[in-house]
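Predict structure. Chain length: 223.
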Amino acid sequence: MVRDIEVLDTSIIVTRDKNNKVNAFHNVCTHRLNKIMKPGVGKVKAFTCQFHGWAFGLDGKLIHSSNENLFPDFKKEKLGLPTVHADVWNGFIFINVAAKPKETLLEQLGEMAGMYDGYFEGMELRGKWHIDVDCNWKIFIDANTEAYHAPTLHAKSLRDSFASPDNPDCHFNDVRLFGKHRIGSVYANPNYKPTEVEGKTFLRQDTTVSGDLGDQRKIAARG
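Prediction complete.
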């Protein structure tokens, strides 16, 4: 798959080689720095630059280049795709474009890695969607440091589900900090009755609500 990552001003190719190893590369030909692949997902046997036909294998190695005799001191083994650090954790692929990352993926995840290790096993992908949020990334992250915006911002969607008479402003009831990371929870509304559309959705997939309330919502949907 190929992803353009605007915040890093780069484009990344992520692939599995014949040994099923996940590799990541900068999406740029080492000849004239031409962008090789367009964003998307698919299957290929090689990545071919449309400028001069240079081709690279799934392991990033240069496997074809024409007119090699025209280049002085040509060394094919040194002209593979620029490597990007990639690691896999619980089925998720993480990349790091730093030349020398300051820490490994597990070091960066810290205690959170142990808490959620195995959490996603057995889950089935039911659907996916992509949303571009036109804002600075910090604004987006900061919006999730509290929940009391829900009654206003999500007045037509989440408010009645997550705000209750005992907690009308949807304050956190628990927050745990883990270095760079955090988790938080709200009381939610145990008396909430899902709409007909929500009820059909709850029957077919898990929700973001866990524990007794999540079970009650599915029971209410069946009723």
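Summary: Residues 137-222 form one domain.
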